[in-house]
Amino acid sequence: MNLRMLRLYLPMLLLSAAALSPVLAQNTQATQNTPAPVTNPAANAPEVSGTTPVDDPLLDETTSDISIDLWERIRRGFAMPNLQVDLVQDREQWYAQRPDYIHRMTARSSKYLYHIVDELERRNMPTELALLPFIESAFNPQAVSSARASGMWQFMPRTGKDFDLKQNAFRDDRRDVLASTRAALDYLQKLYNMFGDWHLALAAYNWGEGNVSKSIMRNQRQGASASYTDLRMPAETRLYVPKLQAMKNVVANPQALGVNLPSIPNHPYFQSVRLPRDMDVALIARLAEVPLEDFKALNPSAHRPVMLAAGTPRILLPWDNAEIYQRNVDKYAGRLATWTAWVAPKTMKVSDVAKRVGMPEDELRSVNKIPPRMMVKAGSALLVPRPAKQQSDVSTKVADNGQLSLTPEVVLRKLWIKARKHDTMASVAKRYKVSVDQLAQWNGLSANSSLRNGQKLMLMVAGKAGKSKSSGSAKHARKKNTQ
User: Fold this and answer.
1) N or C: which end of the chain has fewer CB within 10 A?
2) Residue 119 C-beta-side C-alpha neighbours within 13 Å
3) Catalytic site residue from 136, 209, 293, 409
4) Do residue 346 and residue 319 come from a single domain?
5) Is the confidence at residue 465, as pLDDT, over 70?
6) Bridge partners of 413?
């Protein structure tokens, strides 16, 4: 019997056992009717720690009750004080009037919510926080804001680095389901420890801890209250906590607000499996017998066509597909990866890189997201076709730290000048900030050549692509360069 069947039949087995034994029935009923204990975080804030994998969630008493759905489990863990302001009612109505939006968000969240709730319970944090990605990103792990915040928890690049979320040429952990959830809960716990108040912690998550601290100090200097509702803050932050409270109210009592909240089963959606070698993303999905889009939804940090085992040693698959994947990988005899990483030995034009690695320039630009009129800087890591005979995978150093660095492409154009009276090769070179050897090479002269007054000399200067050749006196040339 596989795990999914076990989940389906376990309630019936429990009921059968209850019928056979009144004592067992009584104990079972007591277990099901007793809410999971919730400790008030304000009384005893837990220390931040890393995630711990659970071998079998069905063995955990706090998660094994599959007779309830995940929403009920979240309700049992509510531990934050309710916020009662007019903006909450405004947001409640906003959600209630958009049933399609609620259904879309819920459908996306069903892949991730079980894991988030598990982590919150393990850390003894309020389960309201599991609803925060509804507010941040509508549970879209590919979401990117105009301010460059990314992922379902919407980490800015700098904050992501502060919480050890790798952002390199091959992956962005701000989008990773496990890594971003770990970092978000670490950050929220840090903010709660700092302010001792969940509403202030949430405001700081949105606005920044420094801004909230300054606002608190401003009120304290004026002898005013420093509670969340009394602080001056931007409109976005002022609306942020009411949005979460409104979503909490929707989950707490959807019928009262006329909301049809689709049920989410109280069991894991995915499990983590090992990535043995570098593998093409499309091949992983095929071997797991999972639609490509579903695989990307569980592994959203994989924004390249290949996953590098040295940087991403484990992947997420739907629970029942993990065994299928392992079985198919074990018997697969073809190439696992058709892409690899290549490190530029020097600063190069994209066209020269394309020739070096043997791929069309347009494809190289598309795969590596290189805009026009840019050059690839030395040391940059690019994704390129993997030679059929290559046996080695990408190294940990490159997979974990590879960056693509670009610089504007310099276009050289000819500029004709006239030598002045008493000019020498050295004086001309100094005036135009080039070397004597370059000047000599461009004009077929030696570094010691004598110059006549009015003698024409050719220079190669930086300019914009598409400019026509310039001619005339040095004065005229310099004037054109400044226009």
Assistant:
1) C
2) 24
3) 136
4) no
5) no
6) 461
| pLDDT > 70? residue 55 | no
State the Cα angle at 167 between 120 and 379, rounded to 5°: 160
364 with 353: CB under 8 angstroms?
A: yes
246 and 130 within one domain: yes
Rounded to an integer, what distance in angstroms lies between the CA atom of residue 477 and that of residue 471? 7
Q: Are 79 and 126 in contact (CB under 8 A)?
A: yes
Q: What's the token pair of residue 254?
A: 């959807």
Q: Of all helices (H) and strands (E), which one includes residue 75?
A: helix 70-76
| Same-domain status, 76 and 205 | yes
d(CA 382, CA 296): 21
List the one residue out of 247, 227, 269 whose CA is nearest residue 118. Answer: 269
- DSSP three-state, residue 316: strand
Other Cβ atoms within 10 Å of 482 Cβ, number: 5
The amino acid sitting at 145 is S
pLDDT at 31 over 90: no
Element housing 271 (H / E): strand 270-274
Reading the block at residue 237, the tokens are: 């932050």
- Identify which has the larger pLDDT, 196 or 466: 196
Q: How confident is the model at residue 63 (pLDDT cuts 50, 70, 90)?
A: low
11 or 145: which leads in pLDDT: 145
Q: Which domain holds residue 4?
A: 1-34
Whether 264 is covered by a domain: the verdict is no
Report the C-alpha gap between 326 and 460 in whole angstroms.
60
Element (DSSP H or E) covering residue 400: helix 396-401
- Is residue 254 classed as helix, strand or coil in its secondary structure? coil
What's the token pair of residue 25? 């029935």
| Residue 296 sits in the same domain as residue 312 | yes
CB atoms within 10 A of CB 348: 17
Say whether 361 is catalytic.
no
Please state the pTM of the whole predicted model. Answer: 0.75
CA angle 305, 316, 9 (to 5 degrees): 145
Which pLDDT band, with edges at 50, 70 and 90, does 413 fall under? confident
Same structural domain, 219 and 126 = yes
CB 171 within 8 A of CB 153: no
Q: What is the pLDDT of residue 434?
A: 87
Greatest alpha-carbon pair distance for the chain in Å reads 115
**How many distinct structural domains can be found in the chain?**
5
Whole-number mean pLDDT of the chain? 85
* Closest-CA residue to 387 (of 434, 337, 314): 337
Q: Would you put residue 379 in left (φ > 0), alpha (ψ -120 to 50) or beta?
A: left
For residue 463, the model assigns a pLDDT of: 65
Buried/exposed 168-205: b ≥16 CB within 10 Å, e otherwise: bbbbbbbbbbbbbbbbbbbbbbbbbeebebbbbbbbbb
